Amino acid sequence: MGFFIKNPKLGSNSGRVSCGFDLYPECTVLVYDFAGIYITKMDLENKILSGRFAFEVPCTEDANNVLHITEGRFDLYMSVLR
Q1: What is the pLDDT of residues 34-53, one digit of tens each?
Q2: Looking at the chain, which terminus has fewer C-beta neighbours within 10 angstroms, N or C?
Q3: pLDDT at 8
Q4: DSSP letters along 16-72, please?
Q5: Please, are residues 17 and 4 in contact by the beta-carbon 8 Å criterion?
């Protein structure tokens, strides 16, 4: 699973988030512009971004097969794209 978060803000539910992942052989997901990620820590000195996430997304192969992602948490190294 990977996230691209444009202009993250501490304590904010980011409005521009993209994710992509492959959970099962019959279910891949690539989603752009969804809400559901909450930033809990931004350490600019060490370039660490932490937060929580929860969302629902349909599988690319079958829109009736919906993944319910709940109580997710992440700690990521940030990189700045210009």
Answers
A1: 667 888 998 989 989 898 88
A2: C
A3: 76
A4: SEEEEEEEETTEEEEEES---EEEEEEETTTTEEEEEEEEEEE-SS-TTSEEEEEEE
A5: yes
Domain ranges of the chain: 2-77
- Cβ neighbors of 37 (< 8 A, separation 6 or more) are 3, 5, 13, 14, 17, 51, 52, 53
33-to-20, 24, 45, 74 alpha-carbon distances in Å: 12, 23, 28, 18
Under DSSP, the state recorded for 75 is: E
Residue 10 CA to residue 38 CA, distance in Å, equals 8
Take residue 58 and report the two structure tokens written for it: 């349909």
Joined together, the tokens standing for residue 67 give 């993944």
Query: Global pTM?
Result: 0.64
